[in-house]
Design brief:
This protein is α/β, with parallel strands linked by helices and 227 residues long. It folds into 2 domains: 60 residues, no CATH class; 150 residues, Zincin-like, CATH 3.30.2010. The protein has 7 helices and 10 strands. The strands form 3 sheets. Strands 4-5-7-6 form a 4-stranded mixed beta sheet. The chain has a 3-stranded mixed beta sheet with strand order 1-3-2, with helices on one face. The longest helix has 28 residues. The radius of gyration is 20 Å and the shape is globular.
């Protein structure tokens, strides 16, 4: 079988491939129908090998350009799609401040608190922003959701339960507003269709005709959310 890191069988009707990235580790994931023969899966993957190689190389190059943070002066951190430089300063309260760039207290940095402080700051920005956009887009397109919850998920940008509860990852706050809106619209569409079938994607396209390009941008932006 061509190189595949994970094969997931489900009730889906078609075979699909996507490239996942978590903490700098890139994986080729194949989703296939439960009854699909392994030869059919192998042939499908082999036919997509050139795309797989190009996509892996692109993601790895992006990861190299955005290494795991050490919370040192000069590093850049994303916020709503833009990148802002970090400066470590001698004495500061609170320990992390954002004012056109990030300022981190030197003692907190030496004590290894950088990641914790950034995560807390991102969550504080994400909760009101995501709830506001979710509410606005739901009203604009005639949807009613039950509850909103800020998620800490690392592998799913969002989810929608059968009860109409929508979860959104706080890591979205690092990405472009257009991409955030795509994720929210994706979850709103699940209020009507709890699957990824034809009618689901038609609903997404009704709300966001350019969703395909935004979906591709989302896939290539995942590396930005590493702390």
């Amino acid at each position: 079988m061509p190189q595949v890191d994970q094969l997931i069988r489900s009730r889906r009707k078609t075979i699909g491939i996507y490239i996942s990235q978590t903490d700098g580790v890139v994986k080729v994931v194949v989703r296939a129908p439960r009854r699909a023969h392994i030869k059919e899966i192998n042939a499908f993957v082999a036919n997509k090998q050139e795309w797989i190689d190009k996509t892996r190389a692109k993601i790895l190059a992006q990861i190299d350009q955005n290494p795991v943070h050490k919370y040192m002066s000069g590093e850049v951190f994303p916020y709503l799609g833009a990148k802002f430089e970090l400066r470590v300063v001698d004495v500061q309260s609170p320990s992390l401040v954002f004012d056109d760039q990030f300022y981190l207290d030197k003692t907190a940095q030496k004590n290894g608190q950088g990641r914790e402080l950034f995560e807390k700051w991102y969550k504080e920005q994400a909760r009101p922003y995501l709830l506001q956009r979710l509410t606005q887009l739901a009203e604009e397109f005639g949807f009613k959701f039950n509850r909103f919850r800020l998620s800490g998920a690392t592998k799913r940008w969002g989810s929608c339960s059968s009860r109409g509860n929508i979860n959104l990852s706080w890591r979205l706050i690092m990405l472009d507003p257009e991409i955030i809106d795509y994720v929210i619209i994706h979850e709103l569409a699940h209020l009507k269709h709890q699957n990824h079938g034809k009618y689901f994607w038609q609903e997404v396209e009704r709300m966001l005709p350019a969703y395909k390009s935004l979906r591709n941008r989302l896939k290539s932006s995942a590396y930005m959310t590493r702390l």
